[in-house]
Amino acid sequence: MKRLSIPAGLAVLVAALVMVFFLNSYYVYVLANVALIAIVGVGLNVLLGLTGQISFGHVGFYAIGAYTVAILTSQAGWSFWPAWLAGALVATVAGLILALPALRVKGPYLAMVTIAFSFIVQHAIIEMEALTGGQNGIMGIAAPTLSADWSIEQTVAVLALLTLAVSLVAYTLLARGTWGAAMRAVKDSETAAESVGLGPLVIKTVAFMVSAGLAGLAGGLFAPLAGFVTPDTFSFMQSILFVLVVVVGGAGSVIGPVIGAAILGMLPELLATLEAYRLLFFGGLLLVVLLVAPNGLIGLGADLLARLRPGAGAPRSRALAGDAGHSLSERARQGLRLDGLSMTFGGVRAVSDLTMEVPAAAVTSLIGPNGAGKTTVLNMVSGFYPPTAGHFALGERTLGAGRAFRIARHGVARTYQTSQLFDTLSVADNVALAACRGRLGNLLGARRYLSKAARQRAAGLLAFCGYQGPLDVPASQLPHVDRRLVEIARALATDPDALLLDEPAAGLSREDTDRLAALLRAIADAGVAVMVVEHDMELVMRVSDQVVVLDTGRLLAAGKPEQVRADPAVRRAYLGEDLDEARPVAERPPRTGPEWLGVNKLVAGYGAEPVLHGISLKVRQGEMVALLGANGAGKSTLMRALAGLHPVQAGGVHLDGQALEKMPAEAIVRQGLVLVPEGRQVFAELSVQDNIRLGAFLCPADREARLEEMFERFPRLRERRHQRAGLLSGGEQQMLAVARGLMSRPRVLLLDEPSLGLAPKIIDELFAALDQLRRENMTIVLVDQMAALALSLADRAYVIEGGRVMAEGTAREIAASPELADAYLGASTPAAG
Amino acid sequence: MLRISRVLVAAALTALLAVLPWRAAVAAEPVKIGLITALSGQSALAGQAISRGVQLAIDEINAAGGVLGGRELVLVRRDDESNPAKGVVAARELIHKEKVAVLFGGLDTPVALAIVPLANQAKMPFMDPWAAGTPITKNGADPNFAFRVSAMDELVDVAMVEYAQKTFGSEKFGLLMINNPWGESNHKGLVAALDAKGMKPAGSEKFDGDAIDVVPQLTRLRDAGADTIALVGNVGPSAQVVKSLRRMGWDVPIVSHWGPAGGRFTELAGPGAEKVHFVQTYSFFGDQSEVGEKVIAALKDKYDDIKGPQDITPAVGVANAYDAMHLTALAIENAGSTDGDAIREGYYEIGTYPGLIKTYQSPFSKEQHDALGPQDYVWAQFIDNRIVPVGLSD
Amino acid sequence: MDTQLVSALISGLGMGSMYGLMALGFYITFAVSGTVNFAQGSSMMLGAVLCYTFAQTLGWPIELAVPAALVLCAVYGLLVERLAVRPFVRRGSDAWLMSTVALGIVLDNVVMHTFGKEPRSLPSSLAVSPVEVGGLGLGVYPLQLIIPLVGLALAAALHLVARRTRWGSALLATSQNRDAARLMGIPIGRAVAGAFALSTVLAGVAGMMIAPLANVNSDMGTLFGLKAFSVAILGGITSAWGVMIAGLLFGVAESVITMTLGSGYTHIITFALVIVALALRPNGLFGRAEVKKV
């Protein structure tokens, strides 16, 4: 980019400057206007492109800049130059003032606040007649002089072009530097930004101020160019035009706003001869341009530009072999102490009175059944939830009251259940930015972030965490395992005292989990206080120095792994009754019905990397088939792909001879393939019976009679038929989801993780209902993490690992097969036994 | 999909380029007359009226052999969207790129005010057939290139006060001004006119162009003891004032600027519309002069939507623009060229010209850039769908 | 009670219920699809212009003109969704915000060139002779009393339709959980298109109701639509009743401010109140804050 675009940019600038002196005054005026719109566009791009905030109020800042210059030069007798500066400053301050309320809100709410701002500015100008000349505005604005022979248009055009060039350079520096990375980080994930010490509010406010200042700077030049200012000039439509400049050009690219400004500044002039039809054509052409390039013309020409701009400044050199000593310094660190922490959500106590230690240089695991409050504890300790009572401390320093980013700066780092990376930043950028620990340096600087030392440290940390992929790809393109590793490296980059990890092993294969175990140990050995929330008991037992068990928000037990494992209270509460023994896998006669559902070499995934690598299944009519495999094996993706919620890349699905793979979800339901999705997905605001009725959307005949049937089948639901579904317990919601699915008159019922997060007693009840369905000869495909339970019901089963079928057979065969133990039970056997 | 869209865009752009009138130079180079006015938005109708007045005059002049020994007049129009910034860009385009000989324009006072300095600087004669803001012609420049064939706010305001005193014996004026530059300019004018008579307004209120309910403002005026309402507003908002008065059951005389003439006031305001007396420079109703008959006939002939005088709205736009164009053609003839300064001098040399509004006698001089004065104002009211000079309806 | 205040309340409630009705239109499409027609004011104008054209220009009876206009409004709503929303949503672009504005510009100008540049008045016997209210010496057009009733009745009817009909609850379901709605066999594409049609019809109703009181022309809806958007946001765009109540509050605030301070300050104060309200309640007055998921 540096090699090509700087000379190209200079050439364009020089050409434009030359044109100023050879074109007639009208074209010079149009050129100056385009440059002014482009300056506002560059400023807006800081908001829209980098920070992901929208503003329909920039005409307000533009007006403030213009009016400040007009008032100071015409009434206070200032010369242009100080007035211009003052205009930009006033606009910047206005940006700060607007940012205070504006940044508390998001999306359409933010759009509204900024629209309101522009109206207030316009009407305040009208009402402050003594100062602003009211409706009739101000004439006689002092113009700048650069050379005595230049006309006003030429002078302003030259100034506008130079200002545009400077602001483009500044934008480029900002975008590649530390602040720019922080802005993009905030755009990608405010939560993750906070957990590496970035204060989103400050960063967004700065973006707002920069953006407002540039609009003010442009407005200050507009006043002498036009020679007058009136309130009508700064209408709401102009604000929309400013946003369009960025959208049409391409948000987030350096020259996008310039291209947008050129088009939107010249188009009306080209259409001028259409007289009364100008606006009509303008609207129409705008629509066409947006349709052709919904992400901007730059996005459209991305192929071409990709060759001109290699990855944003990240060095391509591969990491040196992992050297923990260089990346994660071995030093004495502070441990965490939690003291009487409690958290209440709407009357429900999620965590009550938890007191525990997380000592330095050790791994502490926090375990407990789903809903025990483990993640809530992490959220409190990392500052996202203010505790209802109690406090916590890092060493001697009490942290209880701080915001998340402050706590992160004090040395508490964390990762998330679903990895939250800054998706538009590269792998190395993710880590290097975190290493700044919230100290960003000067606005256009990049030393802390792009320097060789920073990059080497980032590469070292990534290697330390076992990441072996390229450093300069956007994080969004990483496969699941690598996302975990990069997230841990990013957390370590803040050089934390304490590291909190939320289910780091979820979705990892056995080998990956082994490497994770070694990594956790190494981190603790470097002195860090590690706290892990984890379901994988084998991992927990292997790496922990201390295990803390939570049950319904209360501390149940704490101690060494062996002690906890032997604790009868823990076994009862956490593991429940031994399900494997309660339900032996029965030998059933093979089903002889016709082949009903067939899946042939199905490929599906996210982005370029498929999750499913050619899965083939056969399900006979009336058969119950279980799909087994570890978290992240691709089972849920398969279910979603079958149901039409996830696009199928290759392969086929057919039901009773009918091909389904190209159909939208609603057509697949009509064919009788019905998914009861993971996580229940009930309509929380609707009543229980309305939820069930919706299941009959496609076949409303005798709906009410079937509703009664469902209440027969699930008597618990009848009691709660008028309640809002969102108020039901997890088990009741699951029954509701099954009932809703049955209302669609399924020919094949897909059940995705029905037992997830349910208490053992409820699981019993649920599986009894499923057993009933099986006996009624319903064709069922069941995915469940409780393999033994699933096998006790199923006729046949498939084992899936890494998006491939590893084994298939009767339930009894699979229960005895080594593949199953490897892929799945490897995780739970030690815990159960 | 993308490919098809791109083809569509290319087709659309090509079609557009074909539509744009890229005129080649012709043998006897025509004289271009520029017109900048609102062709879209709220003032579009007035913009259309001005366009028609100018075009009608141009047709007549061209039929009679054009100007400067056979050169045709050509009208080049631009839409200013009532926005001064757009008006100025258009003015620059017409002056520097289209190289018009005379610039007509300024429907809205702020647009005209923004264009005037540019016109003076570029030595471009600027003819204003509508905007009534006083400083448009009294702009302090020497030489001054701005001329007007229209009413002037300052004078209209004096006339409003005098008419109300004479007709209704008004003593306490309640001012009700639309919240836009036009309203603001007249507010100043009316206060000054009252001040000259040693009076003060009983009350002064603003209302918005999209207001549906003007009762609050009117109630305050009534409570302040106003016995007459001086109204300045476009046709739509003026109609809302009449509707609100009807709700209040307040029967009060209204003298108004020419806003109500800008549309179908009776249809918009309903019963009570006739109570508003407003100023006009010309009415196409009643007995017409020879020129008047000719213009009405030509308008009916040229524009399908004009069936009679009631369709010529706003009448002042057509009438002012028509006379202004004829006067301008005379000035060009007097100048003997399209040089701006010569045309400016040419305006001063116009002698007697029998126009539509009146017979002009040396309408312009160095000191007088307004061709019309208070003696030319006509007071009118709406009777059904006709604008009738006050008194004729009896 | 003070005559002026009664008058301000009546016209405030009237305008407010129309803001509310249009804002409900924003709410419906936002709930179902996460998008809105940013140029909803043009839809309102279309309703009024079509009603005028059918009833006055073509002389149809009003019982025919109103439904015909509303049907065409619905068709326009479908057009907006198909042309200016769906292509962008499908590609994950936010440019629908801009494209709906562009389509609005096109519609406004097409109407200006076909319907005419002159403001017209839709005559209604309900807006000619004022009736006296409670002996306060103040007349009110019957229509002004009817408008809020119609507004609230429509809102209530919508509520019933959403709860009681198959497609109504399908829309509700879609707004709560798109994926789950698809698993019920609800065709999301048609639900979204339907939401846009319904939203445009509501705006059209507002336009027709206002028309006899205001004037009919091509840009009558611009500012109105923007105010309705602020009402939708103020109410919390995720709450139907909140949106309606915010409409009434906004309308009353507007007319009370005009009454006490004069119209010059109306916009300044109402919009400042919007900002303050959102700063205090970032999800709108009645919107429910989403629980922050970490």
What would your notes on this structure say?
The complex is a heterotrimer of chains A (833), B (394) and C (294). By secondary structure, chain A is an alpha/beta fold. In chain A, 52% of the residues lie in helices and 15% in strands. In chain A, strands 8-9-10-5-11-12 form a 6-stranded mixed sheet, with helices on both faces. In chain A, helix 1 packs antiparallel against helix 2 (25-51) and helix 2 crosses helix 11 (236-249). The radius of gyration of chain A is 31 Å and the shape is globular. Chain B is an alpha/beta fold and 394 residues long. Chain B has a 7-stranded mixed sheet with strand order 7-6-8-9-10-13-14, with helices on both faces. In chain B, strands 2-1-3-4-5 form a 5-stranded parallel sheet, with helices on both faces. In chain B, helix 2 (44-63) packs across helix 11 (315-335) and helix 3 (84-98) packs parallel to helix 4. Mean pLDDT of chain B is 89; it is low at 19-27. Chain C is mainly alpha-helical and 294 residues long. Chain C has helices spanning 3-33, 40-57, 62-90, 96-115, 142-164, 166-176, 178-183, 188-210, 222-235, 240-261, 266-280, and strands at residues 131-132, 139-140. Chain C has a two-stranded antiparallel ribbon. In chain C, strand 1 and strand 2 (139-140) form a beta hairpin. In chain C, helix 10 (240-261) runs antiparallel to helix 11. The chains are: A alpha/beta (833), B alpha/beta (394), C mainly alpha (294). Chains in contact: A-B, A-C, B-C.
Layout of secondary structure:
The complex is a heterotrimer of chains A (833), B (394) and C (294).
Chain A: H1 2-22, H2 25-51, H3 58-74, H4 80-102, H5 107-127, H6 129-132, E1 138-139, H7 152-176, H8 178-188, H9 190-195, H10 200-226, E2 228-229, H11 236-249, H12 256-270, H13 278-292, H14 296-300, H15 302-308, H16 324-327, E3 336-345, E4 348-358, E5 362-367, H17 374-381, E6 389-394, E7 397-398, H18 404-410, E8 412-414, H19 427-435, H20 447-450, H21 452-464, H22 480-493, E9 498-502, H23 510-525, E10 529-533, H24 537-543, E11 546-551, E12 554-559, H25 561-566, H26 568-575, H27 579-582, E13 595-606, E14 609-620, E15 624-628, H28 635-643, E16 650-655, E17 658-659, H29 665-671, E18 673-676, H30 688-695, H31 703-713, H32 715-719, H33 730-742, E19 748-752, H34 760-775, E20 779-783, H35 787-793, E21 796-801, E22 804-810, H36 811-816, H37 818-832
Parallel strand pairs in A: 5-10, 5-11, 8-9, 9-10, 15-20, 15-21, 18-19, 19-20
Antiparallel strand pairs in A: 1-2, 3-4, 3-6, 6-7, 11-12, 13-14, 13-16, 16-17, 21-22
Helix pairs in contact in A: 1-2, 1-7, 2-7, 2-8, 2-10, 2-11, 2-12, 3-4, 3-5, 3-10, 4-10, 7-8, 7-10, 8-10, 11-12, 19-21, 19-22, 21-22, 24-37, 30-33
Chain B: H1 2-19, E1 31-37, H2 44-63, E2 73-79, H3 84-98, E3 102-105, H4 109-122, E4 126-128, E5 146-148, H5 153-168, E6 173-178, H6 181-196, E7 203-207, H7 215-223, E8 228-232, H8 235-248, E9 254-256, H9 265-269, E10 276-280, H10 290-302, H11 315-335, H12 340-348, E11 352-354, E12 359-361, E13 378-383, E14 386-389
Parallel strand pairs in B: 1-2, 1-3, 3-4, 4-5, 6-7, 6-8, 8-9, 9-10
Antiparallel strand pairs in B: 10-13, 11-12, 13-14
Chain C: H1 3-33, H2 40-57, H3 62-90, H4 96-115, E1 131-132, E2 139-140, H5 142-164, H6 166-176, H7 178-183, H8 188-210, H9 222-235, H10 240-261, H11 266-280
Antiparallel strand pairs in C: 1-2
Helix pairs in contact in C: 1-5, 1-6, 1-8, 1-9, 1-10, 2-3, 2-4, 2-8, 2-9, 3-4, 3-8, 5-6, 6-8, 9-10, 10-11
